[in-house]
Structures are given as C-alpha cells and as structure tokens.
C-alpha cells in the first residue's frame, strides 16, 4: 500500500486530541496491515526530565525548557528514522504540538532528506467544554500530575496551554498551500483537506473523517451454540442447538436489561447468527462480510479429520495461524481485509451489537484491543459470552459477560513448541523453501 | 421490549438469504447491508459557476452510486431549459435583468424539483442529484426547505475553480458539442459561453464557512487540490465524500482483459484454479507485445490471486500486484462443473440463475451482486490511479465494465467479455470511450446469452 514511508505530523495546542488521534490511527493502520508506530515527544520529555514540576517548564522564555524540548523532538525524530529506514516501518506518527511553522519546516526537511512523504494532521478546537472534558479524561491521570489534586492539575494544565497560544501558527490555506494535510475542526464538525498525495493518505483521511468521540458501547458476541458446534465440526451453515436457542433468549433478556439507546444489531448471513438475532425481536442488518472464515476444503470437518486428511495443512496452520489460508478458503489475514468496512462503519455508529463468529470476532476484538497479528488468532471468544467494549481515555474498557448457558468449547490454544506436528520431514520432501510460503498463504510466487 | 418467540427462518432460493417467514411468506424485518444503506432519501445539490465540472461530477457520482446498489438519478436543470426553450439564442438569456429568462429558469428548476420529489418519494429512489448552478444563497435556501418539507437530507457539492486553463479545457470538452451551440463555430461558442459565465459571477455567493456552518457540504477547490467538508451526517454522505475526494481528471486509460485461455476453459468447466492452455500462453505473449507497442506511461498491472491471471501477467515481464478481491466469482458447489453438469445435478439452481443472473448466488458461493460489493475497493483505487491494466476474469470484468459504461444490474451479467480481447477505456467528456482489441489468438467462447423466454430448458417437466 505504501511505496515510500509516510511521516504523519500532529499539530495542535495541548488537549486537542492529538495523542488520541495518534494512538487510534496507529492502531487502525497496524490492524489493516500497515506497520505503524507513534512517537510521543511528551513521553521522551518525561523519560529525560524525571519529575514534572509545573507549567513554567513550558514558558516560551524558559531557555532550559526550550533546550530540553528541542532535544526530545530530535531524539524522537531519530527514532522515527530508525523505524522507517531500518526497521521496515511504513508509517510513523510524530505526536507533538508542532505549533510553529519553523518547527514544522524542520520536520518537513527531515522528511525530505530521508525520502518520506509528510502528512500533517491538525486538530483545532475552541470549545471550552471539549477542552475541559479532554483534561478530565486524559490529563488528570497523566504521570505529570500524579501527586496533584484534580483542581491543581487542571489549573496548571490550563496555564500550560496558554504557554503555547501566543506562538501558535495554524496551518494556513495560503502559506501552507503546498503541504499535504488535514485540518480537523471542532472534533470533526468540519475538515479542510489539502493535497492528498497517495493511497495511504487517502485512507487516513477517510478514517479520520469517520471517527467520533460520542460515548457509546459496542457489544460483540458469537451466535448461540450450533448443531455443528455440538459435533465438533467447523464452518458450515447449520441452525442453533437447544442450548444455542436458550442463549438467544438469554441474550434478548440481557440486551433488554442494558437499556441501550438506539441499539443497532448486525449479523452475518449465516443461519446461526440470524437465528440468534431473531430472538431479540428488533430489526437487524445482515452483512455477508461478517460470515465466518471460509475453511475451503476443510469445511464441516472436525480438527481430527483435518489432521488425518490434510496433515501438512494442519501443521502449517499451527505454524502461522494468522497468514495460513485454507485450500480454496481464507486466512485471518483475508478476514481482516474483508472486515475493514465493518470497522469503518462501527467507527461511524454509536451503540451496536454485532452477532458474529469465532474468527470474525477475534479480528474485530484485535482491532479494538490493539492485538498483534500473532495474538489475534488465539484471542478467547467463547460461545455464550458477550463482550462490552466502551472507549475510555486512549483505549477501550472491556467487560465480559457470560450468559450462563453452557456450551462446547471451540477454542484451540497455540500448540507448545514440542507439540508441533513434525513438519520438517514434510518440508524436506518439497523442492524449495519458497514453496513453504506458497503453501501457507496459497499465493502464487514465482520460483526464479 | 419483551423477547418474542423466535420466528422460523427460510433460505430464499435465489440469493440464499435467510429470512424469517410468517405463514409461508417472508416477513420484512431484517435489512441486507449493501442494499439498504440509506434511511431517508438524500438530495445532493450541485453548486458552482458554469464550466466548473458540476455535470461531470453529477453523472459520475450517479453512475458510482447506482453501481454500488444505491438507486440514484440526476436532474439537470439545463436539460429542462433546453426542453422548454427549444432553441438557444445567446448568453443574453442568462443576463441577471432578463425577466423572461429568469421566469423560465425558475420554472425549470421547479419542474426538476417536482421530478426529484416523484423519484425520491414515489419511485423508491434513494439519492437525487440536482445539477444546476445554485449560485445564490436564496436559491439554495429554497431547495433546502423543499428537502426538509419532504423529509430528505440535503448535501451540497460545490466546485470552485479560478484556473483559466481548466475552464477553457472544460469548455472544449463539453460545451462546444452542447446542443446549445450546434450551429456555431468553436470561437463563437467559446465567446458566448464566457459571457454566459459572466452573467452568474456578480450574484455568486459561495458556500461560506460561517454563514453556511449548519449545512452539510463539500467544497471542492481547484479540481481536487483541496476540499472543505462540513457536517457529514450519515453513511451515504461519508461514502460520497470519500468518492469525490478520490476521483481526478488527469487523462489516462484503463485496460481490462481476462487471463489467457485456461485448461478448464478448454474443458468447458467453470471456476477452479488451473494454469493457461497453450493458446492461453500465446495470448500472454501477444498481450506483452501489445502493451509494449502501446507505450503506456507508468503502467500499473493488477491480477487476481488465481494462477491463470498471474501466469498471464508473468509474460509481461513487469511488476504486478495481486488482489484477492479480483478472484473470479465463487461458484460454490458448482465449481469446476460444466453447464450441462450443473443443469443435470442442480436443475433448480440452473433455472434460478437464468431468471435473475445478477442476484443469483451459487450455493456456498457468490452472486454478481456480491462481486460488486467486493470489487468496490478496486473501483476506488482505479479512480485514484492513472494508467492501469487489470488482468481478471469473466464475471469480474463484467462488473468493472458495467461501472465504467454505466450498465444496469440486468445488463451486467450478459456483457460480452471474450477471452483474448483487451478493452481500452479512456474517459472523455461525460463518459468513456471503449476500444476493443482482439489479440488474434483463438480461444473457446465462454459467453452464455440470456435465454429466450421459450428457450428456458425443461424446467416445466420438473
């Protein structure tokens, strides 16, 4: 998706959501497979200056403070270069105020010298209520204010913001007309977008324009236990077992009790999720892209049958469960790509209940909880449990509610090293090592 | 809200969608994502001086929305004017003090809005694109009130451009050939049109960040160099904004073709993942030569992840990108069968497919309708790109072609995309020029026409 690396540069006064956006954007890009890392200059400052005393550190005439802050910015840029030029990073998010044109020019030149494309993300907000809410959400709990009362922290932080205001030079339509940037105004009421250069910048703009900060919760669960679940078979399109139907009724009761405002309900197009939704007695929307991972030739088999009939496939899957694609089927990696529109729409929506499947739920959960590709296929998503996700501060609060109807356990942990079926003998019988990659992802690779 | 006893589910035989049924009839309760994206209808209102690309954007946006399954129609007020005032005389019709002209133009706007209302409120349209200059705040307020009264969400799309070269190029592309100027020389037409633009300039009130802060709109500046987006209200507006921000007007061509003839093609079997036949390999070499001769600047080459398209691309000797979403339609249980075998083993399925080939989903497979949904990111990226060659498959190519040539869902599954032919698509004026080049290597014919009513095979005996 990216040719040269991209350097995203945040711009804005303190408490305008820069770190919130940085972390969220980083999480999203990593989830869709673009290696991204954020570099928070405030963190570099905390590592260097062990104890934060007061806002006076940020006064524009505090020579010592300015020197340290510049040093931190350069250290962060150094790490950015390391990440993008030596560690195969694709995108770096440089999270700092960057409120002067001079500072931005320094960073832009750094980008040019290293062959990075630079994209600025500015957050502009004058609404005092929003600023106050941000301070409560993420500043009062900051390491800087660990020994202060809330009132002391708020007062100091407001003075900190004042330190930046006089020298703040916003991105300007005329002066900065040749830069690539998005200016986000009033938490997303409006946007100014200038000179989007490539695909990844276009995706970043689309994502930033769809996220919001309105409080809400996302409920994730699987369909009720199905007939094939009971038989230990994967995939297929069967209906609910007796216990699965009990779960559906239990889910209806749970949802009722939660008293959720304007809840949207989404299902896949497989019978078992739709049957589950039917019990709720509310309108629901069917998404084909929420269908369970396609196990191809292994559909409706038990794991024992797969191991017996396709021993190499079985072993390959345990070696790299994220990238492994079933023959004539899909991989978790494919799932993430097809679920991206679901994530985008979940970001747009408010209260949503998604009734889906094990692999699908793992992918969605990995997005919200910032799990890696290695962790994702082993996330625990048991039948008959609902996960309630509520955005808070920079992350997501998770509540797990088991609805007290027994069900089979469909989870397989990653096998221990010794337990891995002996692929070495199988692999030595294949001509070239590159065949291994071909077998895993079922992607045609030219054997030159 | 008490939980009612769960309703029984039945699987619709055509689309394989599970629906609840009451007394044997499917109940309308669930919605299917992809079809039902909009709650209340949306009224898109174009804004801008003449020759700023409003009609270009209207038509393109309408084509895109219809392709992704959102029923959309454009209403060009200039067309209403041409229908009413049979002959166009001169720019003087548009002078701000021409009472007669003003009266007619207002009449046309109201007639168009009347048809908008018919389309959105009575004909199940989801989106209407109201294409006119709409350059005064007063006119926009009238339209906004109309939208509110009818329960439509209004979204403005303004195109602002001051670059004289762009304006001149627009005039050449789409104005000189307009019915208004059918009896004029190019110079006469250009001169008159420039004066026409002047008629609007004095009364032009652009969308304003302060005065119009409560409206939903996108302001497109300098053909997409920058955008101002205000108060996007819902999913469809978000998709419209994303689309508008990805299209461009840089001249380029898109080449579409299928993989070379495959082993399964030779056997008359559908789907699968086999390699090229001998003739298919010859085609690949021929394609390489053709591409070379075209001397295309910075050509990107895309394939699916199926062996036959990749083998075809390999012969070109240039880098290419594999897209899984370009894979051929999944025929589910019918994969690798001949049509005869399908008819024999799945006679009902075979008949259903001929009844509604667009919506028909193979058991454990896909429909053309599903294909369109998975190809949408390809279309979006094709819009962003410049010169691209897409080596794909029959059903996939039909879907892509339908987007570029504005074909309906009924026409799409029957578009002719024979093996060993390349289609070169070049955007021109409001549409797309198509050149079809057969690369002179024989191949089997994989096309099945829509059966005649009488020809539907012996399902009657079933």
UniProtKB/TrEMBL annotation, chain A:
Keyword Metal-binding assigned: no
Any one biological process term the GO annotation gives: fructose 2,6-bisphosphate metabolic process
Active site: 223, 292
Every 6-phosphofructo-2-kinase domain range: 2-215
Keywords for the protein's UniProt record, in alphabetical order: ATP-binding, Hydrolase, Kinase, Multifunctional enzyme, Nucleotide-binding, Phosphoprotein, Transferase
Entry GO MF terms: 6-phosphofructo-2-kinase activity; ATP binding; fructose-2,6-bisphosphate 2-phosphatase activity
Keyword ATP-binding among UniProt keywords: yes
SMART domains in the record: PGAM (SM00855)
One GO CC term on file: cytosol
Positions of substrate binding: 222-229, 272
Protein family: In the C-terminal section; belongs to the phosphoglycerate mutase family.
PANTHER family: 6-PHOSPHOFRUCTO-2-KINASE/FRUCTOSE-2,6-BISPHOSPHATASE, 6-PHOSPHOFRUCTO-2-KINASE_FRUCTOSE-2,6-BISPHOSPHATASE 4
Name by which UniProt lists this protein: 6-phosphofructo-2-kinase/fructose-2,6-biphosphatase 4
The organism of origin for this protein: Chelydra serpentina
TrEMBL record, chain B:
PROSITE patterns per UniProt: PG_MUTASE
The keyword Membrane is annotated on this UniProt entry: no
Claim: Nucleotide-binding is one of the keywords in the record: yes
SMART domains: PGAM
UniProt cross-references to Pfam families, sorted A to Z: 6PF2K, His_Phos_1
GO biological process: fructose 2,6-bisphosphate metabolic process; fructose metabolic process
GO terms for cellular component: cytosol
List of residues binding substrate: 258-265, 308
Molecular-function GO term, any one: fructose-2,6-bisphosphate 2-phosphatase activity
InterPro entries in UniProt: 6Pfruct_kin, 6Phosfructo_kin, His_Pase_superF_clade-1, His_PPase_superfam, P-loop_NTPase, PG/BPGM_mutase_AS
Keywords: ATP-binding, Hydrolase, Kinase, Multifunctional enzyme, Nucleotide-binding, Phosphoprotein, Transferase
Active-site annotation: 259, 328
Domain 6-phosphofructo-2-kinase: 37-251
PANTHER family, A to Z: 6-PHOSPHOFRUCTO-2-KINASE/FRUCTOSE-2,6-BISPHOSPHATASE, 6-PHOSPHOFRUCTO-2-KINASE_FRUCTOSE-2,6-BISPHOSPHATASE 4
Family: In the C-terminal section; belongs to the phosphoglycerate mutase family.
Protein's recorded name: 6-phosphofructo-2-kinase/fructose-2,6-biphosphatase 4
Organism for this UniProt entry: Chelydra serpentina (Snapping turtle)
